[in-house]
Amino acid sequence: MKFEEIEVLMRKNEALSEQYILPENFIIVRLDGKGFTKLTKEKLELEKPFDERFHLAMAATMQHLFMVGFRVIYGYTQSDEISLLIHKDENTFSRKVRKFNSVLAGEASAFFSLQFQQIGVFDCRTIAIPNHDMILDYFCWRQEDSHRNSLSAYCYWTLIKNNFTAKQAATKIEKMSQSDKNELLYQFGINYNDLPVWQKRGVGMYSKEVVKQGFNPVTQLSLECMRNELYLETKIPIREDYRLFLNSILKSK
Ligand SMILES: Nc1nc2c(ncn2[C@@H]2O[C@H](COP(=O)(O)OP(=O)(O)O)[C@@H](O)[C@H]2O)c(=O)[nH]1
Ligand SMILES: [Mg+2]
C-alpha cells in the first residue's frame, strides 16, 4: 500500500469517528481528578476533610481554564472537580468533542501538577445543554453533590479523629439521614452550619465588570474606567437564589 492511500484511509476513519457538539447548544464540561482519593491521602499531605491549599489550587486551575481559548461563561469547582459553562456560539475546533476534552484535560492536569510538583491528572467529559433551565439544573445538581459529600466527609473524618476505624466510620454513617449527620457532628462539637461556605457548596467564577481608577497622562487627571475581571464568588447562594444568581450571569453574556 502506498503512503498516499494509507493517509486517505486513516483520515477517513479519523473523520468518521469524530463527534461534535450540535449547534445552538451550550457546552458544559466537567473535569474530575483521577484517583485523587489516593493522591490527596498519600502524596499531598492535606488537611482532612478540607484543605485550603488544595482548594485554592483547584480554583487557580479553574481560572487557568478561562484563559485557554474557549468562551467560558461560568466556572464552578468543588472537591476535585471543575465544571465550565461554555457559550453556545463557541466554534473553536469546530465543536469537536475530543478536542474539547483532550485540550481541557491536558491544560488542567499540567497546571495543577505544576502547583504541587506532583502529577495530578484530570479527565474531562462534555455535555450538550440545549436550554437555560438545564444549565440551572446542572449547577444545582453539582452543588447538591458538594453539600452531600461535604457533610459525609466531615462525619467520616470526625469519627476517624475520634478513634473509629475506617470501616466502623463508613458503616456508622452509611445509612444516616442528613439531619442525623448534622446531629452527629454537633455531638462532637461541630456546627455544620458554621463551616466555611466553600467547603459546603463549592465556589463559582465569572467575569464581572468592575470600576478601576485610571490616570490620564495628558490631562494629568485621575479617571474611572470599567474593566472586566474574573471574580471568584466564595459565598454562592443555594436553591432558588442560586438559580437567580446563575440567570443574572447568563443574561449579561
Ligand atoms: N484531604 C482532602 N481530600 C480532598 C479534598 N478535596 C477532595 N479530596 C479528595 O478527593 C476525592 C475526590 O473524590 P472522587 O473524585 O470521587 O475520587 P477519585 O476517583 O479517587 O478521584 C475525595 O475522596 C477526597 O478524598 C480536600 O480538600 N482535602
Ligand atoms: Mg476524582
UniProtKB/TrEMBL annotation:
Q: What is its EC number?
A: 2.7.7.79
Residue stretches making up the tRNAHis guanylyltransferase catalytic domain: 10-130
> Which UniProt keywords are present, listed alphabetically?
GTP-binding, Magnesium, Metal-binding, Nucleotide-binding, Nucleotidyltransferase, Transferase, tRNA processing
Instruction: Give the similarity note.
Output: Belongs to the tRNA(His) guanylyltransferase family.
Task: State the needed cofactors, names only.
Answer: Mg(2+)
Origin organism is Chryseobacterium carnipullorum
Report which residue ranges the record marks as coiled coil: none
Cite a single GO MF annotation: magnesium ion binding
Q: What is this protein called?
A: tRNA(His) guanylyltransferase
Q: Which domain of life is it from?
A: Bacteria
- The residue ranges of the Thg1 C-terminal domain are 135-213
Keyword Metal-binding among record annotations: yes
What are the recorded Gene Ontology BP terms? tRNA modification
| InterPro entries, A to Z | Thg1_C_dom, tRNAHis_GuaTrfase_cat, tRNAHis_GuaTrfase_Thg1, tRNAHis_GuaTrfase_Thg1_sf
